[in-house]
Design brief:
three-stranded mixed β-sheet; alpha/beta; 9 strands; single chain; six-stranded parallel β-sheet; 14 helices
Length: about 375
C-alpha cells in the first residue's frame, strides 16, 4: 500500500506570526491580493490586525468580505468575480473554515475555469492546475483548513454540503498566529476546539490511518485535552490560545491525508439542512459516535485514554475504552457543548433526511466500523 502526505509549502507559528506576511509576499513575488474574510472579522477589528501589516508594507489588496458562516456556491461565485475584478494574483484568507473554504473555491476555479459551475468540484475533482496561491491566516482553532486539501461548500439547489477533496487547493502558506484568536467568543472557542478534537480522534481511528498520521493525531488529542479548557475559560491566556492553535493544525496535517468518519458524515447535513455551525454539529455527536466505533478500534482507544491522562495502571482494555469515551464526554460538557439535538432545533421528523445525506457523505466510508443508514438513524435518535 502506498501512503501519501501533502503539506503546505511553508508554515509559520506563534503569537505575532502575521508579521511574516511581507516577507512571504516578497519572497514569492506576489503583486496584489484578494483578501477573503467576513464582515464580523472586519467589524471587530480582527481582519484589521492583518490589513495593518499589509498597509505598513505597501502591499496592494482588495477585500471580499461577503463570506457566509456556511459558504455557498453563490458565495464562491461572487468571490470569483471579485478576484477577477481585482486582478489579484494571490489570495489572503483571514477567518475560520468558512473563509478558507471560500478562498479555496475561488482559487481553484480561477485557475481551473472549467469548474466554474462549482458543483462539479464535489468529491475528488480532476483539476489540472494548482489553486491561485493562498496565504491562510486562521482566526479559530478548529478546522485546520489552512493545512488541508479539503473544503466544504453548500449546494443551495440540493440543500447539501459538498465535500471537495483536491491536493491542488491546499494553501501555499499557513500563518498560524494565536493573537488573531484572542477575541474569539467562549462558545465559538469551545465548538471549534471540539471540532479539532473530532478531527484528531476520527483521523486517528479512520480506516486509512497509518504510523505517520497516528503520530500527529495522538499528539493533537493530548494537546487539545490540555489546552481547550484553558482557551475557553481564560481566553487571553497565551498558553491556551497558542496551544490550541498549534494542536488543531497538527490534527489537520494528518486527517487531511487519511480522512475522517461518520461523525463528520453526520455533521455535514446538520449544517446544510439546519444551518448549525459545523463545530457544534461535530462536537455534539462525538461522544456518542466514539462509543459506536469503540469495538473497531479498542487498542487505539487505550492510547486516547493515555493521551487524556485517564489511563490507570492495571486497567483492562475495555476499562480504558470506557475511560476514553467518558473523558471526551466530560470535556465536551465542561466547555459547554449541548448534549441533545433538540437543543439545536432538530426534531425526530428531521432525522430521515439527515441520515440520507449522512450515509452518502464522502467522510462516512472512512469510518473504522461499517455503518448503515439504520445505524445513523439510531445514532441521531440516541442524542435527540
Amino acid at each position: 500500500m502506498v501512503n501519501r502526505f501533502i503539506l503546505n509549502e511553508v508554515s509559520y507559528f506563534g503569537p505575532g506570526a502575521r508579521k511574516e506576511l511581507p516577507n512571504v509576499v516578497n519572497r514569492f513575488g506576489y503583486k496584489k491580493a484578494l483578501v477573503v474574510t467576513d464582515k464580523g472579522l472586519m467589524k471587530f477589528g480582527v481582519a484589521k490586525m492583518v490589513l495593518d501589516v499589509l498597509d505598513a508594507a505597501g502591499i496592494a489588496y482588495d477585500i471580499f468580505d461577503e463570506v457566509k458562516p456556511n459558504p455557498t456556491v453563490t458565495n464562491v461565485k461572487e468571490g470569483i468575480k471579485a478576484c477577477k475584478a481585482a486582478a489579484a494574483d494571490f489570495i489572503i484568507a483571514i477567518g475560520g473554515g468558512s473563509a478558507m473554504d471560500t478562498a479555496k473555491g475561488i482559487g481553484i476555479v480561477c485557475n481551473n475555469p472549467e469548474f466554474s459551475d462549482i458543483v462539479s468540484l464535489e468529491g475528488v475533482a480532476d483539476t489540472k492546475k494548482k489553486s491561485l496561491p493562498i496565504i491562510a491566516l486562521p482566526t479559530t482553532a478548529g478546522t485546520a483548513a489552512e493545512t488541508t486539501i479539503n473544503y466544504v461548500i453548500i449546494d443551495e439547489e440540493h440543500q447539501k454540503k459538498m465535500v471537495c477533496v483536491d491536493p491542488n487547493d491546499i494553501p501555499a502558506v499557513a500563518i498560524v498566529d494565536a493573537e488573531l484568536m484572542y477575541s474569539l467568543p467562549k462558545g465559538l472557542t469551545a465548538s471549534t476546539g471540539m471540532d479539532a478534537m473530532t478531527h484528531a480522534i476520527e483521523g486517528y481511528i479512520t480506516k486509512a490511518a497509518w504510523e505517520m498520521s497516528d503520530m500527529f493525531e495522538i499528539k493533537a488529542i493530548e494537546m487539545i485535552h490540555k489546552y481547550l479548557p484553558i482557551a475557553v475559560n481564560d481566553p487571553e491566556n497565551p498558553e491556551g490560545r497558542n496551544g490550541m492553535a498549534v494542536a488543531q493544525y497538527i490534527a489537520g496535517m494528518a486527517f487531511s491525508n487519511v480522512g475522517l468518519g461518520v461523525d463528520h458524515g453526520m455533521a455535514h447535513p446538520m449544517s446544510a439542512l439546519h444551518d448549525i455551525p459545523h463545530g457544534v454539529a461535530c462536537a455534539i455527536l462525538l461522544p456518542t459516535v466514539m462509543r459506536f466505533n469503540a469495538t473497531a478500534a479498542k487498542e487505539k482507544y487505550v492510547e486516547i485514554a493515555k493521551a487524556c491522562g485517564v489511563y490507570k495502571d492495571g486497567m483492562t482494555v475495555d476499562e480504558a475504552v470506557e475511560a476514553a469515551c467518558d473523558e471526551i464526554a466530560t470535556l465536551s460538557k465542561l466547555v459547554g457543548i449541548p448534549a441533545h439535538l433538540s437543543e439545536l432545533g432538530i426534531t425526530e421528523e428531521d432525522i430521515p433526511a439527515l441520515a440520507e445525506q449522512a450515509i452518502n457523505d464522502v467522510c462516512t466510508p472512512g469510518n473504522p466500523r461499517e455503518v448503515t443508514k439504520e445505524d445513523i438513524i439510531a445514532l441521531y435518535k440516541s442524542i435527540l
